[in-house]
Each structure stands twice: as C-alpha cells, then as structure tokens.
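Teaching soon. Invent one.


***
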Amino acid sequence: MPADSRDAAVPTASYSDRLELELEGAIEEEVPAGRRPGVVAGGALLAVAVVLTAMNLRPAITSIGPLLAEMRNGLGASAVWASILTTIPGLCFAGAGLAAPMLARRMGIGPAIGLALAVLTAGLVIRVVDGPYVVLGGTLVATAGIALVNVLIPVVIKDSFPARVGLMTGVYTAALQGGGAAGSAVTPALEPALGGWRAALGSWAVLAVIALGAWLIASRGTGRQPRPAAGSAAGRSLLRSPLAWIVTIFFGLQSFIAYIVMGWLPQVFIDAGVSKADAGLLLGLISVIAVPISLVIPPIAARQNSQSPWIVGMGVFGAAGMVGLIVAPGFSPLLWSVLLGIGMSVFSLALTVIALRARTGAETAKLSGMAQGFGYLLAAVGPFVFGLLHDATGSWTVSLIVLLVVMTTQMIFGALAGRRRFV
C-alpha cells in the first residue's frame, strides 16, 4: 500500500505508533478515535526536550580528552587502555544502527529515547565510581545511550515537525555541537572546582537528568499500538535501495573526516610550529563555527528542491582548508581552521538529508539506522588509517592528500544524496 494511503488510514496516529507498526509491516487497524498514543505533537515543549537531549550527545565523549592524562595517572592505566577508551564511542555509534530501530519498534519512540537517556545518565555515574575497567564499562554504557538517541531523534524531527525539518535539524545540530564544545571547554575548569577528574566527569550526569525529565514530560501519554495481525507483510529493507546507500556513504564519509580532524588535527598543527594550547583552541574553533551555520543553513536548504548546491559549496570551503594544510600548514592555521570548520558543518545537512529522503517516520528510522550504523563503522577506521599513513611516510602530506580525496568523494555523494528523491 502506498505511504500516503497508509497515512490517510490512521489520521490520529502519532509518529511512534506508525514507527512501531510500519517496521513490523503494513498498518492494518485504525487507531480508535480520540486516542493519541506516542509523543505529543511538535510544539515548544517537545522542541525544548529535543534541544536538551542534543546537548547531552557529546559531553560524555569530549569531556574525556582534556582529562585523559589525569585519568591515566590516577588509575595507573596504559596507553592501550586510553586507545580503547577513545575507540568505544565510534563502535557504539555503529552498533546503534541495528539496535535503535528494533528498540523503537518494541517500545515506541518516546519510551525508547527516555530509556536511552536513562542509560546515558547511568553510564556517566558508573564510570567515575571505580577503577579503569569500570571507567571503560561506564563509558560503553553512556555512549550506547547516546548512540540510540543519535538514530532516533531524526524520526522525532521528521514526524513531529514536518513543516520545519530544516529548522529543527539545525537547532538540534547546533545544540549537539554546542554541547560538544562545552564538554571540552568547561570540564578542565570543573576539575579543580569540584576536586578531581571523577567529579568533573560525573557532573555531566546532572545535564542528562534534566534532559531526561524534560523528555518524560514531553512524551507523556505514550502508549503502544496493537501489533498487526499475523501474516502481515514485512517492512521492506533499505539495503536494496541505491539512494539509501548513497545517503549512507555520504554520512559515513563526512564522519570519517570529522573523526580524523578531531583526533589528529592538533598534532598536525603542533608539528607545523603551532603551540599545544593554540592547537587545542583551533580545534575548538572548528566546533564553534558549526553552531551558527547549523542554525542558518539547514532551514534554508530544506525548503529548496535540492540540497546539493549547499553540500557541494560547503565541501569546497573544507577542501580549500585542506589544500592550505597540505601546501603551507604553518602559514595561516586560523584561516585553515575556519575553512575546515565551514566544510565540516555539512554534518547538519547530512542529518537533514536523512529526514528529507524518507517519506514516513518508519522509513526515516530505517534510513537513519542504516546511515549511522554503517557510516560510523566507516568513520571508526579513519583515525587509524590517517595515523598509519603518517607512520609509513614520516610526514602528514600523504595523509592529508588522502583526506582531500575523501572530501572530494564526499562532495560527489553529497550532491547525489541532496537531490529530491525518496528511498
């Protein structure tokens, strides 16, 4: 049955109902009149809950870097332990692509996100109560919660704010980037103020609790729709959709670039003569630049038939910054960072494209899970390949040239993903 006719058959169904039923198969029962299970319709309260949730999706990760040396000293941990700690987020993000849609199908979107926020909160507390293995376990729990929300929030935006997909995606992305910047910038100051790295890291659980409370209020009244009758058609897989793979590769390539920049760019600058402190500030600048861009560009791009010109245009800025790093890394690090920051802000458009290339909330959930699952798996190997090339050649030139090639490929797939079509 076409998506439009399914939607017409259940005029009172909220997006969590449709997600649960459409992931199982065709909707075969009409929702009883007056019943509105699931998350409430998009409004100010839900928008606030989305923003607060987004602010929690990076501090658990970015707060570790500034305190990693203190953590290793205090725990007596090895460099291998540190490598595992910093690898966990990427692996969790990849695994959530499979877990999130199944969880949402069984629970509904509202309860699933609430559970994910509770898991995040628990992980933030657990990881500061004991030794190195508990830190790893708590980080695994916290980032698992983050990974689930990463996949499910685009569904909320798609179905609760259908007329403002670009605006809400921009607001969500800006809040996400702002939370990440706060995690790396505020945590060092919290350490002496709160008496150590454990309290500094654990304090981010307070923000998670606030987001959880807001989400529980915004999603009150959720319920589960009866399962479709046995023998109903199974939902189609997007693994056979060329467009879904194009979106997935686009998302994966931009994440591949982001992971490398976050992990290696400060060292590239340091080797070019930039001080350690300034190299850290330049990396922070790249994150901050994404905030205003995420607020402005996605709402404009989403109203147009194609997002391809915006994706390519931002990619050109990023490529220009990469050329500068290759040719003269120490000439103007500030300029190269600004250009890279503009280019990497395409992340907000990658999320926008996921919502725009699907017709329904169920399809958005599938596409989001596929793009982020496979995409983050691709991104996880980026820093390893980048560092391996440096070790093999003795300089950053080959590594940066490869990254420039990846940026060019990202623009190609981004241009294809940005055209008005549906999976």
Summary: Residues 1-41, 222-234 have pLDDT under 50 and may be disordered. The two ends are 15 Å apart (CA to CA). The longest helix spans residues 165-194.
